[in-house]
Amino acid sequence: MVKQERAARTRRALIQAAAETFAGEGYVLASLPAISERAGVSKGALHFHFESKDALARAVEDEAARAVERIIDSAQRRPGLTRLELLADVMRGLMARIAGDAVVRAGFQMDGDVTRKGSRAFSRRWQAWVGEVLREAERDGELAEGVSSRAMATTVVAATVGLRVLAASDETWRSGSQVEQVWSVLLSGPVARQGS
Amino acid sequence: MVKQERAARTRRALIQAAAETFAGEGYVLASLPAISERAGVSKGALHFHFESKDALARAVEDEAARAVERIIDSAQRRPGLTRLELLADVMRGLMARIAGDAVVRAGFQMDGDVTRKGSRAFSRRWQAWVGEVLREAERDGELAEGVSSRAMATTVVAATVGLRVLAASDETWRSGSQVEQVWSVLLSGPVARQGS
């Protein structure tokens, strides 16, 4: 294995170990020695790649953000979806990834962590994308009368964040069935019509 | 002021100071000296009332839970509300209280904090109540066909948790307008009907 390959592999192991530690214990309690040990890497190697815990956290956040971009790109390439189906599809992919991938889970988790006052870049990007898709849906008449794209975006963003937080602390929220339940409500309209 | 009154006042000041500290810095970073200083109380007085940070946190959680019970009781006494209007009313009251009262804010926040592995009693109670109200709504025909009370409960609980987390980290989510937006969606049904 050439030197660059080995360095890249060490870097990936450190990001993975950091993400598992941040997701499990919270950013503030995570220690660099615990992370290098979990990665099977010396403390010197950790410091060669990352100058601080903050630098490691930023690397986790960047990789999580790229994973989300890929989920969005792949859903957008599926043909024949309405805007709401596209949103549901991306949210489904995102929640599955949060359940199965510590990097994405930690990236989202740190974004809402009061002990880590970050840029909120991750959730801002998610909010912006959801808002954009729903404005297009509104323009093309895909939303019911009386429902604004803004209100729908608020609901989708709040539900995404809520599902993520609930899944982090309670395993009954990790099955993926909750995303289907949320979209069964969002796609059908929950109030009985007058006279129905 | 008699001795018991003074003790009760000190206890309240400590709970308030602890809640402000937990909500602002997170449970794990909060220090007992910072809390006693914020409360204007000696360290000895703090230890007289609370044997540990965990005991203080439990007092904050208990008081927050009682505040939520009062919000629910008061909404349930309002006449003429449908079940969904009752839920919207309670959620509105809860979000206003989270914005304005550090004890309720900290109580909810600690419930989703990975660094504090608590009993989740607070969010379990909220989930149970939301589920119960929606089962009654379903039984009485207040939900649209195809919407299960379970799916609606998941959506309401996820949205509540999401709004609370977003409000904690981003002040644009603190105005109360987001609750109205969520309920405008939940009460109307967001998908354009076929042929409409």
Automatic annotation (TrEMBL), chains A, B:
InterPro entries: ArpA-like, DNA-bd_HTH_TetR-type_CS, Homeodomain-like_sf, HTH-type_TetR-like_transc_reg, HTH_TetR, Tet_transcr_reg_TetR-rel_C_sf. Residues 8-68 form the HTH tetR-type domain. Pfam families: TetR_N. The keyword DNA-binding applies. GO terms for molecular function: DNA-binding transcription factor activity; transcription cis-regulatory region binding. Keywords: DNA-binding, Transcription, Transcription regulation. The keyword Transport does not apply. It comes from the Bacteria. Residues 31-50 bind DNA. This is TetR/AcrR family transcriptional regulator. It comes from Streptomyces guryensis. The lineage of its organism: Bacteria, Bacillati, Actinomycetota, Actinomycetes, Kitasatosporales.
